[in-house]
Amino acid sequence: MQSRIAAIPLLILFPAALVFADTTPKAAHADIVNSQGAKIGSAKITSTTKGVQIAVAVSELTPGEHGIHIHTVGKCEGPAFTTAGGHFNPTSAHHGIHNAQNPNPHLGDLPNLVVDENGKGKASFSVEGVTLDDGANSLFHEGGTSIVVHAKADDLMSDPSGNSGDRMACGVIEK
């Protein structure tokens, strides 16, 4: 009898624990498409203790360095991908890790993506301060976010976009 009475609080607390369980997504992804809408790559995004880790794999791009950024709108309408909006910058920081003005860099800044002579590129980036949780720094804020690959290398210092040129590919970040 006593063990049944002891089990009653557990039966009450267990459903409450389910209600208050962490529902924050631990991962996200983006299918990266070219200006014709063909899938040319993907990005996998995972939560870390300080932000997110982004792993990108692309193909069919011109060899060399390409600027790659998180953009503030989750929309990728080609061919120019202007629907992706500007760079993700909820903290109003300056563009580029080498920008002389502080604070820098903004949260949408990523290091350049290097594409080999076969048109393929892979990279992994740690982005501190970005989250998959709720809040101003969330990749899932209203309107969403996207990942955009640019035509040229980012100079890592010029506002607003590091002189990285046209937008060549885009992927909406999704849960």
Whole-angstrom Rg: 20 Å
User: What structural class results from the helix and strand content?
Assistant: mainly beta
Number of helices: 1
Largest sheet: 7 strands, antiparallel
Q: What separation lies between the terminal Cα atoms?
A: 47 Å
Task: Please summarize what this structure is.
By secondary structure, the protein is mainly β. Helices cover 10% and strands 31% of the residues. It has one domain: Superoxide dismutase, copper/zinc binding domain (Immunoglobulin-like), CATH 2.60.40.
Verbal overview:
This protein is mainly beta and 175 residues long. The chain has a single domain (23-172), classed as Sandwich (Immunoglobulin-like), CATH 2.60.40.200. It has one helix and nine strands; from the N terminus they run αβββββββββ. A seven-stranded antiparallel beta sheet has the order 5-8-9-1-2-3-7, with no helix packed on it. The chain has a two-stranded antiparallel sheet with strand order 4-6. β1 and β2 form a beta hairpin. The model is unreliable at 10-14 and 16-20 (pLDDT under 50).
